[in-house]
Automatic annotation (TrEMBL):
It is a multi-pass membrane protein. GO terms for cellular component: plasma membrane. This is Tripartite ATP-independent periplasmic transporters DctQ component domain-containing protein. The chain crosses the membrane at residues 21-43, 55-70, 91-114, 134-152. It is found in: Cell inner membrane. The keyword Membrane applies. Residues 29-161 form the Tripartite ATP-independent periplasmic transporters DctQ component domain. It comes from Flavilitoribacter nigricans (strain ATCC 23147 / DSM 23189 / NBRC 102662 / NCIMB 1420 / SS-2) (Lewinella nigricans). The keyword Thylakoid does not apply. Keywords: Cell inner membrane, Cell membrane, Membrane, Transmembrane, Transmembrane helix, Transport. Belongs to the TRAP transporter small permease family. PANTHER family: 2,3-DIKETO-L-GULONATE TRAP TRANSPORTER SMALL PERMEASE PROTEIN YIAM, SLL1102 PROTEIN. It holds the Pfam family DctQ.
């Protein structure tokens, strides 16, 4: 059981560090948007690369921060009954939901997005807009990496739920 807890703690540390690092992209995005708005309204000009960089940063914040959000229970949940459940039942929902829905979905998205990202990298895909960003494959790899981080956190959540179920079972038998 200690080995499983070490795995959970290791995954939690990875997503915590990446989430904190990615949060700085938010500051960069705010500065970029404010600068773009100033140039647009004061000088009546904008650049294609600025607009594309805005949505690339937003996408990277969302994608790379998904594991962090899941770790801190800040993800979307349809909470009709979950909040009324006891800890053991919540852990059971998390375990089963993670195994049946989250892990297969993440694997499917990782598999699919990796192929698109590699193809984009091989051809050196860039923006179709004149003056746009030259490396569109970066955002495509962001999908793969972000969903991989979500998968890791899902595995940590499944293992933590298993440990909670075992702990609750041992408490009831004592």
């Amino acid at each position: 059981m200690q080995g499983l807890q070490k795995i959970v703690d290791g995954i939690n540390r990875i997503n915590e560090r990446i989430g904190r690092a990615v949060s700085w992209l938010t500051t960069g995005l705010v500065v970029l948007v404010v600068t773009d708005v100033i140039f647009r309204y004061l000088f009546n000009t904008t650049k294609a690369w600025t607009i594309e960089l805005e949505w690339h940063l937003f996408a990277l914040i969302f994608l790379l921060g998904s594991g962090y959000a899941f770790k801190h229970d800040r993800h979307v949940r349809v909470d009709l009954f979950y909040s009324r459940f006891g800890k053991r039942d919540q852990a059971m929902v998390n375990l089963v939901g993670g195994l049946i829905f989250l892990v297969p979905w993440c694997i499917l998205v990782i598999y699919s997005s990796w192929g698109y990202a590699m193809q984009s990298f091989r051809i050196g895909e860039g923006s179709p807009d004149p003056g746009g960003l030259p490396a569109l494959y970066v955002i495509k790899f962001g999908i793969t990496v972000g969903v991989f981080l979500l998968l890791l956190q899902g595995i940590a959540n499944i293992l933590q739920s298993y440990l909670e179920i075992k702990e609750a079972s041992s408490e009831t038998t004592e």
